[in-house]
Design a protein that fits this description.
four-stranded antiparallel sheet; globular
């Protein structure tokens, strides 16, 4: 809400007040945003934005909206959906629930180089299913060094989290217990979001194991091995959002206790203590949609 009015625009907070950036989608909604030196990118589920055709993804150049080729779509007349964006040196990575990017076949993940879309290998899937089947696809992206970390709900090319090194996919962990998950061989579960502090990648979602190690819904990957976060979360206390500010890690989700302390759906971890809650935030509920933000270093 902005001044008691439903938000239908892209807005920004300058530290004192809200200001409009641009008109939002004419239909549908925005889920993800990313910023490069020249453009603000938005993705979600829509067919028009600011009065122009744009299939689920668009860029704002400061004056007007522009479509990215033929945009993102799925087979069989389905709209497709963009859940996550990451911008890097002229390239834009888009992840979500889709099977095509422009005219290219792309299962859940694709790259826009400013002119054309391209797939990243064979993309992601789960036991032969397409991202458009049952919510299978990419939910989060993290650009870290020369690697792109991809998380979501899939079992190929890795279990719910994998790394794209620029040329090919790499699993996080070896053998049948790569990645994260729940149940036999970690086939179930998902990664909703992640953040980095130094060389460490912190992953949140709904899972019971990471690389075969017991850790509930929150785990750390140090570049070569998985580690438990000792979150002491219940099995259904899903982590919905993860962000890092300096050396502090903030997590939000469906929990009232984390690390054996009370925390009302949001908590901060400083690398030493067990997730002290942020009592000034009385309610932070995450249900079916994520709030997308491009921030500059504050929470």
């Amino acid at each position: 809400m902005l001044a008691g009015t439903n938000i239908t625009s892209i807005i920004k907070w300058d530290g004192k007040q809200w200001a409009k950036v641009a008109d939002g989608p004419d239909d549908g909604f925005v889920i993800a945003m990313a910023k490069s030196a020249r453009f603000l990118y938005v993705g979600g589920r829509f067919s028009r934005i600011g009065g122009i055709p744009a299939n689920n993804i668009a860029q704002w150049d400061g004056q007007r909206w522009l479509g990215l080729g033929e945009g993102i779509s799925s087979e069989g007349g389905e709209s497709g959906q963009v859940n996550a964006l990451a911008a890097r040196a002229g390239d834009l990575f888009a992840g979500g629930l889709f099977t095509r990017a422009g005219t290219a076949a792309a299962n859940g993940i694709a790259c826009w180089d400013g002119r054309t879309w391209a797939s990243l290998g064979n993309g992601v899937s789960k036991i032969g299913l397409k991202p458009s089947d049952g919510g299978i696809g990419v939910w989060s992206l993290l650009d870290h060094g020369t690697n792109l970390y991809v998380g979501g709900h899939f079992a190929q090319p890795g279990k719910h989290i994998v790394k794209w090194n620029g040329q090919s996919w790499e699993q996080l962990g070896a053998g049948p217990y790569d990645g994260v998950g729940t149940g036999l061989l970690q086939l179930f579960g998902w990664v909703t979001d992640f953040a980095s502090i130094g060389a460490n990648i912190y992953n949140g979602g709904l899972f019971s194991h990471a690389g075969g190690i017991r850790t509930t819904n929150l785990a750390r990957w140090d570049g070569s091995a998985w580690h438990s976060m000792d979150s002491r979360l219940g099995g259904f206390d899903a982590i919905r959002t993860v962000t890092a500010v300096g050396t502090a890690l903030y997590v939000g989700g469906e929990f009232t206790r984390i690390g054996n302390v009370e925390a009302n759906r949001v908590a901060r971890w400083d690398g030493r203590s067990r997730f002290p809650g942020l009592p000034q935030i009385q309610t932070w509920c995450w249900k079916q949609r994520r709030i997308s933000m491009v921030h500059g270093g504050s929470v």
